């Protein structure tokens, strides 16, 4: 029934198509032609369906074959897995038995090899940092390889390896007591590699061309210190290299370079002054100006005092000194009474006092202002420190070191300028007053002499 309906539907569809085609092409088609066309279309459709069924059957057979092969492969893998698991368990038992037998046979030797491995690792680190390796390279590599082999694969060291460990340790101790000279490549401070003659002082120091060297165990290179220590250490290094066997005083670093590194990083005088910043330079300029004034006054007052002393011993009046100019007033007023002469002498002394005390007030002001300028630098440095703390916190002390250095260095510079200026002012003021006292004393003598004569 269903097939009949289907055929009628197909016929109607074909009929509608034929009618549409007839309307479009204006050609007549009889019922026999229409029926024949319908039968041909039905036959083609049937052939396509049969071809699809054959393709489906072929694909299904292929899929069945693949499924069958996959199941067979799975069964084989499962069987192999069970076999491997059984073999693994058996190997575990065998390995446990063999380890037990090995431990039994080793006995105390196991502890020996453990200590040997530990000593090899410690000695390796010692050789990496020892300057002796600059002359005898390759020692640390052997110890490193042996320690890794004993640790990773539980490989036992041979007699030759044990003897070499002992030999290398003995050689290190022997070389530690020698001062030897050898030739090696040295990386200079500018980056150029030059073959030089190097003096090794035990395991403590390397010296070449009067400069200290450092050994890098990681790269195995010898290089000059970019920043050398003080000149007195450099002089001793040059003397050591030029020595032909005689005793030379030489500073060594028993810490393996730690003390030398700190000594090299210590700032010199110029760097300390630079830490003071602008305020520090101003303090130094003011101090230098005050020192020049003080030296000028010291030389001037010394010469004046020598001339005054010479005038005291001479009866002739010389106007090249304050005392001679004061005594000349007496000769210029031979007939003046005591009161008039006293006034003339006082006037002459008062005229000499400013010359003797010239620039002393400036020196005194500098001695007072210098510590105040140091205090200004201290406040400025602390402000910078607090700004760094506000921005970056207190996690890194190096961020605050700049402000603190400025604060401390300016304080020191202010005191360094103020203390000498205060002492110089006191000394120069005393010398000036002593000369004034001599003038007053001689003037009083002249007045007394004129009063007795009157």
TrEMBL record:
Transmembrane segments: 278-304, 362-383, 403-428
GO cellular component, one term: plasma membrane
Membrane-topology descriptor: Multi-pass membrane protein
Span of the signal peptide: 1-23
Keywords (A to Z) from UniProt: Cell membrane, Membrane, Protein transport, Signal, Transmembrane, Transmembrane helix, Transport
Domain of life: Bacteria
GO biological process, one term: protein import
Any Pfam family matching the protein: MotA_ExbB
Domain MotA/TolQ/ExbB proton channel: 321-440
Localization, UniProt: Cell membrane; Membrane
Primary site of residence: membrane
Cross-referenced InterPro entries: ExbB/TolQ_transport (IPR050790), MotA/TolQ/ExbB-rel (IPR017270), MotA_ExbB_proton_chnl (IPR002898)
Family according to the record: Belongs to the exbB/tolQ family.
Protein name: Energy transducer TonB
Organism: Alteromonas macleodii (Pseudoalteromonas macleodii)
């Amino acid at each position: 029934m269903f097939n009949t309906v289907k055929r009628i539907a197909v016929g109607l569809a074909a009929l509608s198509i034929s009618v549409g085609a007839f309307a479009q092409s204006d050609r007549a088609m009889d019922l026999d032609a229409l029926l024949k066309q319908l039968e041909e279309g039905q036959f083609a459709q049937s052939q396509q369906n049969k071809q699809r069924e054959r393709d489906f059957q072929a694909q299904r057979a292929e899929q069945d074959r693949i499924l069958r092969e996959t199941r067979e492969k799975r069964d084989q893998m499962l069987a192999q897995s069970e076999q491997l698991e059984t073999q693994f368990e058996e190997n575990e038992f065998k390995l446990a038995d063999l380890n037990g037998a090995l431990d039994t046979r080793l006995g105390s030797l196991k502890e020996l090899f453990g200590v040997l491995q530990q000593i090899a690792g410690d000695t390796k680190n010692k050789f990496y940092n020892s300057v002796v390796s600059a002359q005898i390279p390759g020692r640390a590599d052997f110890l490193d390889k042996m320690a890794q082999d004993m640790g990773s694969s539980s490989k036992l060291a041979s007699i030759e390896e044990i003897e070499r460990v002992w030999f290398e340790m003995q050689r290190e101790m022997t070389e530690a007591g020698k001062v030897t000279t050898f030739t090696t490549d040295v990386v200079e401070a500018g980056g150029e590699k030059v073959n030089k003659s190097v003096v090794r002082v035990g395991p403590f120091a390397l010296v070449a061309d009067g400069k200290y060297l450092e050994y890098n165990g990681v790269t195995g290179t010898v290089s000059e210190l970019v920043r050398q220590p003080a000149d007195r250490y450099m002089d001793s290094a040059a003397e050591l290299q030029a020595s032909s066997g005689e005793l030379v005083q030489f500073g060594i670093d028993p810490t393996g370079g730690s003390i030398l590194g700190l000594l090299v990083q210590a700032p010199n005088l110029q760097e300390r002054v630079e830490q003071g910043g602008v305020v520090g330079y101003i303090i130094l300029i003011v101090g230098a100006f005050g020192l020049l004034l003080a030296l000028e006054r010291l030389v001037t007052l010394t010469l004046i005092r020598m001339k005054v002393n010479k005038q005291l011993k001479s009866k002739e009046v010389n106007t090249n000194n304050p005392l001679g100019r004061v005594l000349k007033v007496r000769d210029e007023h031979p007939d003046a009474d005591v009161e008039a002469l006293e006034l003339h002498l006082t006037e002459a002394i008062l005229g000499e006092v400013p010359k003797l005390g010239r620039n002393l007030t400036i020196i005194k002001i500098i001695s007072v202002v210098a510590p105040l300028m140091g205090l200004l630098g201290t406040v400025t440095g602390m402000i910078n420190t607090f700004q760094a703390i506000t921005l970056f916190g207190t996690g890194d002390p190096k961020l605050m070191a700049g402000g603190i250095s400025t604060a401390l260095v300016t304080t020191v510079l202010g005191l360094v300028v103020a203390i000498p200026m205060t002492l110089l002012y006191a000394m120069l003021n005393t010398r000036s007053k002593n000369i004034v006292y001599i003038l007053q004393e001689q003037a009083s003598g002249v007045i007394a002499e004129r009063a007795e004569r009157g």
